[in-house]
Amino acid sequence: MIENIAEITKDQLLGETQKMSGQNYRFVTTSCVDLGDGNLDVLYHFDKDAKLQNLRIKAKRGEEVPSISKIYLCAVLVENEMKELFGLNVTGMAIDYGGHMLLTPEALKNPQSKITIEQRGEK
């Protein structure tokens, strides 16, 4: 179970992230989980004085979610990763690799999504 988690909407994401930055929280990473029904669970992890604070949003695959990379530039890597591997439509990234930061043009699209795994016959 994740402690210190705030459930927010994607519309609150930038404001809440800006608050974290203003309170001198360090951005750690973002986690993405495919819930299997077209929904994604996205968790943003922050740290201050060895205490984690987490923000959680729910998004549908393909739904637009704003990038936090204009607040925390380092988020650009994990945002590109979520876009490529899970199909999360992160918009406004400071650096957008266009779906090819990790994957080649020949690679299977969104290989970590449950839909793609089921299409390949894996469970």
Written description of the protein model:
By secondary structure, the protein is an alpha/beta fold. It has one domain: 2-Layer Sandwich (Beta Polymerase, domain 2). A four-stranded mixed beta sheet has the order 1-4-3-2, with helices on one face. Strands 5-6 form a two-stranded parallel ribbon. The chain is globular and about 45 Å long.
Outline the fold blueprint.
Blueprint lengths: L4 E3 L5 H10 L3 E9 L4 E10 L2 E10 L3 E3 L8 H12 L2 E3 L22 H6 L4
Parallel strand pairs: 1-4, 5-6
Antiparallel strand pairs: 2-3, 3-4
SSE series? EHEEEEHEH
The profile of the biggest β sheet is: 4 strands, mixed
Q: Structural class per helix/strand content?
A: alpha/beta
N/C terminus separation:
24 Å
Low-confidence stretches: none
CA gyration radius, whole angstroms:
15 Å
Taken from the alpha-carbon principal axes, the silhouette is: globular
Strand order, largest beta sheet: 1-4-3-2
**Average of the residue pLDDT scores:** 87
**CATH C-level name:** Alpha Beta
Number of strands: 6
The residue fraction in helices comes out at: 10-25%
Provide the number of structural domains.
Answer: 1
| Tally of individual helices | 3
Keywords:
single chain, 123 residues, alpha/beta, Beta Polymerase, domain 2, 4-stranded mixed beta sheet, two-stranded parallel ribbon, 6 strands, 23% helix, 31% strand
